[in-house]
Amino acid sequence: MKRNLSLFIKGKVPQQAYTDFYSHQRLSCSAKIITQWALGKGADLKCCLKNTDLTLASLTQPNIYISSEQELILISNIVNTLELEPLDGLNAGLQYSLSLYGAWGFTMLSSPTLHKATTLGLRYLKLTYAFTRFSLQTAGPNSHILAENDFLPETIKDFILNRDIGAILRAQRDLTKSKLPFNKVNLTCSPPKNESYYTEEFGVTPNFKQQFNTFTLPTTLLSAPLSSSSPEANHTCVKECETLIKKTDASLSYISKVNNLLSNSSEIPSMEQVAELLNLSSRTLRRNLEKEGATYRTLLDSYRKNQALALLEIGGISIQEISYLLGYSDPSNFAHSFKRWHGVSITNYNTFNQISHLPTPPET
To answer: Cα(264)–Cα(128) distance, rounded to whole angstroms?
Structure first.
């Protein structure tokens, strides 16, 4: 059955990039886990599978591939049937053990440190079942994980965000055998009835209804060695991930390929570096992007614009540090770009942002 991808794609982003995203094939393991979880909560299997073209065999047989869109429809059915709230998504995500991910999971397990595991995990995130895009930024003593899924439909966006966060938490705990204490957590979703569950999982009560999803923790925690580390196994697993990513990327647009590299690079790459990573000349990359109605400069500008707001909302990161993280050699250049993007200076934006987050005074 041919579906209309535009039903799921929102207008904030280039449609080609997310048409690529939704047409991505994935193993049915995630669909099986989320269905089993839903059945345990009283859902009906027929209701879960409605309009997905999935059968019980699709979920139980090994090495069955389904589309990302099929899983989205499945999740939408489950959320609507059970009238779930975002908190349920966090619980569902904690069911995703690292052993379910194949080469991706073993790449993380065999890494020398949590930081290396995180870096590799984000680089090959497309090999997972996540619909949320994660990135890592390190500034001084703190590291910040940013999560974005604004392109998903409102009815399931918060549930999927929490599911993917739960899966990340589970991966971290499978690696370190403990819970990481976060310094600060900002979430775009509304506060649940039971905030204590979030506090227990994160070690801190999140700030809800924020503009961005960010998770701050001490950078020193990422340097912790992993007991499952194996240099030989890691080398083999990374090669396998590279092979799988190339197969996945073969049909992607160049807009998507560039966006993926920007999101998963520890430093902002130049166009020449991006072209080299894609095994292209700069001229060929430029020509391919122009055919898709984009340029490297506009894609980089869009990435910087979104990252800047998210980093500013976290708080405690200097303008100089944000400038460096976004690849500006001079903070004044970043300041000029920010005003061009948003029509206000960084100082005025910060002042407004602080005021908008003040508690509403009680009525007298």
So the answer is: 14
Q: How far apart are CA 252 and CA 246, in angstroms?
A: 10
As a whole number, the mean pLDDT across the chain is: 86
CATH architecture of 252-355: Orthogonal Bundle (1.10)
What is d(CA 64, CA 61) in angstroms, rounded to the nearest whole number? 6
Q: Regarding predicted confidence, which is higher, 164 or 248?
A: 164
| pLDDT score recorded for residue 21 | 53
Show me where the domains of the chain are located. Answer: 23-83, 85-249, 252-355
Q: What average pLDDT does the segment 334-343 reach?
A: 91
**Which distant-in-sequence residues (6+ apart) come within 8 Å of 20 by Cβ?**
251, 252, 253, 256
